[in-house]
Amino acid sequence: MPRPGLIVNADDLGIHPDINAGILSAHRNGILTSCTMLMTTAYWQQTVRDFVRPAALPIGIHLSLTLGQAVAKAGDVPDLIDEEGNLKLSASQLLLASYRGAAGEPMLRQFGREFTAQLGRALDCGLRPTHADTHQHIHMNPAIFSVLQDILPQFGVSRLRFCRERFWPIIFGADFLPITKRFNLAKWALIRWRSNQIISRIATNDELFGILYSGVVSKAALLAVIGSIEPDRLVEICIHPGFPAPTGTQYYKRPGYNQFICSIARKHEHDILVDEEVREAVRRRGLRLRAYDDTIKH
């Protein structure tokens, strides 16, 4: 089982080279301890060259059913992709569906094939993931969680992010408007509801921060979380730092993804991770910064 401590994990390594650069900076200069990498983007090979092969930082796998090009053969995942091979389902579809009975079984098999293909690509390119999570937390659907925890050990992955987040009253301050604009309260409620139905057989974190503030983490919120962490628990802060990608280019078919990686919020989240007051708060609490594979960050 993972030991107690604080994991600060950057999602979306591989989504764009500028985001990658910001993730590496936050690791080298701040409290970021690890990241998770997408295998479905046009930049995955570049990311392997620049981050995986030189072992730039601890890297897990960010499995996707909603972003990028499917890795499995089109004939193996026909219900997951559009005519161009793009993963087409939305997070809300995936989180809400039951996938029960005869109608659900074909979809679950296709999820398993796509997860297997992404994990196979990761191992083939030399990545030995510290852990796994999913883009937009779609594995918090109990049926998808079950598929994933059956597959991961076959690829030597023994640790999986669990996304049951407590309610943070601090959101009713200055951060309330950006949180509501991103529908984060609705996301939090949906994921919390679904996570309560999961029985995990795989090692997970004890607690997570990163859904209510998804995409818009503030310094005040980060300091509040650091101040509340219990030292005998394993807590993950899920965050999306980066240097914003240039605007005006369609990197992905869905406009929302392009807006996200081009947003100045990516730089803000990078900056708070390297902020000296935040670093000092971690030191003052005596929190041990670590990755899921127990790599300690000094």
Description:
- This protein is of the alpha/beta class and 298 residues long.
- The chain has a single domain, classed as Alpha-Beta Barrel (TIM Barrel).
- The chain has 11 helices and 6 strands.
- It has helices at 17-29, 44-52, 91-96, 101-124, 142-151, 176-181, 184-195, 219-228, 255-262, 265-273, 276-285; strands at residues 5-13, 34-37, 59-63, 132-134, 207-209, 234-239.
- Strands 4-3-2-1-6-5 form a 6-stranded parallel beta sheet, with helices on one face.
- Helix 1 (17-29) packs parallel to helix 10 (265-273), helix 4 packs across helix 5 and helix 8 (219-228) packs parallel to helix 11 (276-285).
- The longest helix has 24 residues, at 101-124.
- The chain starts with a strand and ends in a 13-residue tail after the last helix.
- The mean pLDDT is 96.
What is the SS-derived class? alpha/beta
**CATH top-level class:** Alpha Beta
User: What's the number of helices?
Assistant: 11
Overall residue-averaged pLDDT value: 96
Spans where pLDDT lies below 50 across 5 or more residues: none
Let me know the CATH homologous superfamily.
Glycoside hydrolase/deacetylase
Q: Strand share of the residues?
A: 5-15%
* CA(first)-CA(last) distance: 21 Å
Number of strands: 6
What would the CATH topology be?
Answer: TIM Barrel
Q: How many independent structural domains?
A: 1
Order of helices and strands: EHEHEHHEHHHEHEHHH
Q: Could you describe the largest sheet, including whether it forms a barrel?
A: 6 strands, parallel
What topology, given as strand order, has the largest sheet? 4-3-2-1-6-5
Helix content estimate: 25-40%
